[in-house]
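BUG: 3D viewer hangs when loading the predicted structure for this chain

Environment: internal workstation, default settings.
Expected: structure renders.
Actual: progress bar stalls at 90%.

Input used:
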Amino acid sequence: MDSESDTIILKPRNDTSNDEGIVFSSKLAEFSKLVEGLDHSEVATVDISRDILLIIKRFLEDHNYDKNLIKIEKPLTGNDPKNHLDEKTYLLLKEYKGTQNVDRIKPLLDAAYYLNFELFKDACLCIIACDFYVGATETELDQFIEKNGLKELTPEEELEIMKEFAPVFEKLNEKFKKQLDEEQLKYNNDNV
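Structure tokens produced before the viewer hung:
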């Protein structure tokens, strides 16, 4: 295969088969900073499983290796990923939707970070993050609390958390005090 090849081959490091690897279009380099820097005339060994590489390949092929066909709406404005992803991305990733699937989507996210593939990473994060979306109204907050089985903390639980994370709360208090001091100084200067 010469360097002007229109394909890129990625082979999982732990793949013991005689298979030469997963063949991608050379356009993969437009999506992945890692692949962009590789010698495309050779098979590249990667720390990604065969199954995950095949999902990534399907993602790219579903969108004809065209960034303009991949739609990821940010910031989130609701808890349904269908409203934030193009249809093909949603159909590919919908089985990973919800907090109950975090362990299943983790290998996809790990691969996206490994490849430095921002669009795939954003799509995976959207599928997870929608589950954490809380609307602005009291009703939406109540629905989120009920859906996730959350409860109010007792004063004892609050105290325990504050003790356990004391350095974090101290930093937050310092930052808040600094902001208040700056606002007070600005107010005093404006009213002189």
